[in-house]
Amino acid sequence: MTVHTPLGFRGKRILAPMVRVGTLPMRLLALDYGADIVYCEELIDIKMLQCKRVINEVLETVDFVAPNERIVFRTCERERHRVVFQMGSADAERALAVAKLVESDVAGIDINMGCPKEYSTKGGMGAALLSDPDKIESILTTLVKGICKPVTCKIRILPSVEDTVNLVKRIEKTGIAAIAVHGRKKEERPQHPVHCDVIKAISEAVSIPVIANGGSHDFIKEYTDIETFQKATAASSVMIARAAMWNPSIFRKEGLLPLKEVMQDYIKYAVRYDNHYTNTKYCLCQMLREQLETTQGKKLHAAQSTQEICEVFEMADFYEETTAVFEEKKTSLETETQDEDDQMEDPDVIKMAVRFDKREYPPQITPKMYLLEWCRKEKHPQPVYETVQRPLDRLFCSVVTVAEQKYSSSLWDKSKKLAEQAAAIACLRTLGVPEGKLCEGENHLINKRKREDRERLNNRDHGEDLAEPSRKKANFIEETSDINVPKMPR
After folding, report:
1. How far apart (Å, rounded) are the C-alpha atoms in residues 448 and 455?
2. Which residue is catalytic, options 76, 115, 153, 283?
3. 76 catalytically annotated
4. Which of 183, 267, 361, 411 has a 20 to 30 A CA-CA distance from 476?
5. pTM
6. H-run or E-run covering 251
7. CA dist 12 to 38, 67, 176, 224, 468, Å?
């Protein structure tokens, strides 16, 4: 597939992918200080495929949100043409699905083939791929053909120079845009010397850009050392990990900034983009290093919120001002959204301010089940649920159609399932039909289940086939909608 992107990989200074470090604040800070390209931390394909892409209008970001509402990947316009999304994958089709999910929000896609840690290798990802060149070829070829952004990969060196060069030549044939090489074997650690000779041999053997990585311990202490490492490896570009983690101003041509200033710059981004305080704290601790035992270091270690972190670094006023701006913006957006909701109000929908609280119902009994049972009894078509999600706060609202009449709750819920239950409640209460609450007394669905259970036991005692009772039981198990949840127009 033709690649349309301004991203190039020659003569670049690059922030390496680092777990827990390469989140949005660090990437933006590296760009501010002079990095040309920034890689995000490795994100696992299976986790990403569970995410929804959400526009965060308050932060002006694009968020990929897990089912538990955790932000798995957050990015913004500032880095869109400079950030490479690194994923962990051992499956070509999954890798392509993730790449297509994020393609419009990033500048490139990278496959991690060098991480030796168990969380990466146990699923056949990371350094485990180095022993499976066929799978490497399958993943990279599928990505190169399937997306419009450049594809790269990051490897470690093999036990011999010859094997490493042969593998890289095979990788080059897949059509990738560049390859990053960490100059250590998978069993070696940062204290082991980086093998510049192997990276140099790779650089001389292939025509695609080679990005040298692994020089923080032996070479890179300040900006001018980056060029020294590049010359020693004959690489096209240099990727920096730990030296940037310790002080991201390593990318400044003018030289390193004082650590206090760097940390305050980092905190500004962490607050501005609502970074989780545990991640902010972790990154700051990596910068403090030997200063963790100082008074400031101990206060940072004890901090239990972003606000407390700001107080440690004398930035309480900045925190208050920034959060006040966010609250004002959120209120303004909520007002606009409410106005849109009012304009979109459907007069044909009967609304009721209700929510579903499962504590008010017997186990495994829900309003949706009662509504389905009532429709069957009255010979109506089964209920049809239409659910939308509001972009601003990611809340859901559902409308259920029963006998050509629409019903909904006027309250928005945090999940599609809860919104559908609330719509069912609105319908049942309007119709004056029991909804299965504990306070309603005898529950006919529970009694029905008990009868079916007794029948199954009797059938089992007589050795009868249990398949038919199982099908009968399915008749009153709650049916769920297969309709995808669309986003409301903004």
Report:
1. 11
2. 115
3. no
4. 411
5. 0.73
6. none
7. 10, 37, 17, 14, 67
